[in-house]
Design goal:
Strand content: 35-45%
Number of domains: 1
Radius of gyration: 21 Å
Order of helices and strands: HEHEHEHEEEEEEEEEE
Shape: globular
Distance between the termini: 16 Å
Largest sheet: 5 strands, antiparallel
CATH topology: Immunoglobulin-like
CATH class: Mainly Beta
């Protein structure tokens, strides 16, 4: 049963109990259940490119951090953008225009470069600093948690995605809810640090599209309550649905407050 359904069931039963309280013994009455604390997951936005010779070193650092902290704590998204993501007249299968919007928004230049939870006072991060950023961010408790469910229609290559944002903080949380689609295990070329070109590089957690507005949707949720958003997206013919993930995060002026990742398909 989803968190939303559990919550609504509790509230409905509680309302029934209030109407007929004389008929329910005290030991059987429902009481409010405090939402559990949720550990902080950390978002790394890796601004990368297939023509960037040092970008595989950043990928290695992500792999090291995932191994150290776990893939539910460190969630990376490789956003192919900027000057090393495309060349005129040459195919750039991983580049996206939305990725370039993000690259410009954060005023990025040299690559590889990235953001750790969009810590505005410290942006951008060199990949050699990502470990320190992750270590700092996981020390905080998450003010929200997510339950993300998706249904994929293979005939139409269409996915419907429901995101439940659950308030955990004592104060209301107001921010932007962002939903991205990323893909793993993409076999494509990559320029390498030794000057060679790997024709069959295994690209992981590649940003494919923003499911909702590229800058997110307003969301407000108070302690113990649930805000529900529903979205749909049609997958490009080149994308492999079984390799796709939904990355969900909430950010505000303090940065990314929580992030999660779930498979698009079962």
């Amino acid at each position: 049963m989803t968190m939303k359904k559990i919550f609504m069931t509790v509230m409905t039963l509680a309302a029934i109990g209030l109407v007929s309280c004389d008929e329910v013994s005290p030991e059987d009455r429902l009481t409010y259940v405090e939402p559990p604390e949720v550990g902080r997951a950390v978002l790394i936005e890796d601004y990368t490119g297939q023509y960037c010779v040092n970008c595989p070193r950043a990928t290695e650092e992500i792999e090291r951090l995932v191994e150290q902290y776990g893939d539910t704590t460190v969630i990376a998204v490789a956003i192919h953008s900027g000057p090393f993501s495309k060349q005129k007249g040459v195919p750039s299968p991983l580049y996206t225009e939305v990725g370039d919007q993000y690259f410009a928004q954060w005023n990025l230049s040299a690559q590889p470069v990235g953001l750790v939870d969009r810590l505005y006072s410290s942006m951008p991060f060199s990949y050699t600093d990502w470990g320190a950023g992750v270590n700092y961010e996981i020390g905080f408790k998450a003010p929200v948690s997510f339950v993300t469910n998706s249904v994929y229609d293979s005939d139409n290559r269409a996915a419907t995605i429901e995101v439940q944002t659950i308030g955990l903080d004592s104060s209301p949380v107001n921010g932007k809810l962002q939903v991205w689609l990323v893909e793993d295990s993409i076999d494509s070329f990559q320029y390498m640090p030794d000057g060679s070109v790997s024709e069959h590089y295994n690209h992981m957690h590649v940003f494919r599209a923003s499911v909702n507005d590229p800058w997110g949707d307003d969301v407000s949720v108070s302690h113990g309550n649930v805000a529900v958003k529903r979205y749909s997206i049609t997958l490009d013919p080149a994308w492999v649905p079984d390799h796709c993930w939904v990355v969900t995060f909430l950010y505000d002026n303090e940065g990314v407050r929580q992030v999660s990742k779930t498979k698009l398909t079962d």
